[in-house]
Design a protein that fits this description.
This protein is mainly alpha-helical. Helices cover 51% and strands 9% of the residues. The protein has a two-stranded antiparallel ribbon. A hairpin with a 6-residue loop joins strand 1 and strand 2. The structure holds zinc ion.
């Protein structure tokens, strides 16, 4: 039996040893980790941003009505 197993880096698909020495696991490197987190953040940013715009439009009175 192997003492440790390997996982695939979600970003680039490289084999990463699942050991305490693999600091960025399941990613192969800090770079791949940053790339993945960045993509995730962009994705989650997009959704609330759209929802917030909708809410503002629906909730706030039209500027013209005040004038
Ligand atoms: Zn990688």
């Amino acid at each position: 039996m192997n003492a440790h197993r390997t996982v695939r880096c979600p970003t680039c698909g490289a084999s990463v040893e699942w050991t305490p020495q693999s600091k960025w696991r399941p990613f192969c490197s800090e770079r791949c980790r940053t790339i993945d987190l960045g993509a995730w953040a962009n994705e989650s940013y997009r959704v609330p941003a759209v929802g917030k715009d909708d809410e503002d439009e629906a909730g706030a009175p039209a500027p013209d009505a005040e004038k």
